[in-house]
Design a protein that fits this description.
alpha+beta; SCO0607-like; 3-stranded antiparallel beta sheet; signal; 106 residues; 2 helices; 34% helix
Length: 106
Amino acid sequence: MSSSSRVRRKQSSLSAPVLALAGVLAAGLLSACSFSTADAICGGGQYPVLSVNGAGGGDCIDNGKEPPKGYARYPEGKVPQHVDDKWDKYWYDHTLDENGKIISAS
């Protein structure tokens, strides 16, 4: 066996574990970026509602059900998705009146 074939064999035996490790690390980094650490406002199969004329109050309702008396759906485009996101914070100081108009929460 020539010395050049020994060198190639050593390189290939070293490069396989290095490539495998690099692949595992890349996959781990990519999957970690796809997960959100923010808590969801509601669990799966539910949607958030807010209390009418109330400040910072809300609940989660099962999909397909209407909000109970005293609660309303958030206006379209202003629905909080995660705790302390833009809309969650917005609704700390705002609410809906009985006609669905956004008002300042007292």
